[in-house]
């Protein structure tokens, strides 16, 4: 495969190379927390100085596993449902789920900005189950394309923290109103980390993360049914445990400590009424 220049991605779009670096590097390890062959292929095919992101870690591989588990569970319960991957970036969830045998009848809507979608088109295989939508997740016209007749599962993996709080709440409200009976899953960062990014969070001496103005604790996520019309239930999803420090950080008994629960990343699964 001819090397593709990753420097075409800038700003928030470039963060997909950060997450790819972590997932692909984990997949190359014999003891990696995720098996993601397409992430390895993309990592090797894209010409980019990944050292800008510092040393790779397990965080995005573990997060991807959590999203895979929940998406697979929904598809097993709703064969032929639609999955909408908002700001999908260079995620390769579709192919991991296909290997699990749960995506045979899925309609998969891949939503992201044109530069990212152009990379996906160059690097990833075509599949009749995938509908590619080159647009912002905040452009609600993607909703008009989704077949909701057999259920809808919306993922916003690594997206909402980069949006303004009002935009996040409006998006959640609109998804709940448009897709009753569906579900939506997203991850959040704690407030202390959001504040750090607003001041400039360095991953290395050559890379500063984009600002992440939206933060949500696990308990704030669980409380969303009381804040957003149409959200019937919300559940905090445990992060899989990894190696070493990542094994300790996500040890379930730690969540009994209020300080830990308030200051860790969180993943929230919403169920819409209907």
From TrEMBL:
Keywords: Methyltransferase, Transferase. InterPro entries: Ppm1/Ppm2/Tcmp, SAM-dependent_MTases_sf, TcmP-like. GO terms for biological process: methylation. One of its GO terms (molecular function) is methyltransferase activity. It is an enzyme of class 2 (transferase). Its EC number is 2.1.1.-. It holds the Pfam family LCM. It comes from the Bacteria. This is Class I SAM-dependent methyltransferase. The lineage of its organism: Bacteria, Bacillati, Actinomycetota, Actinomycetes, Mycobacteriales.
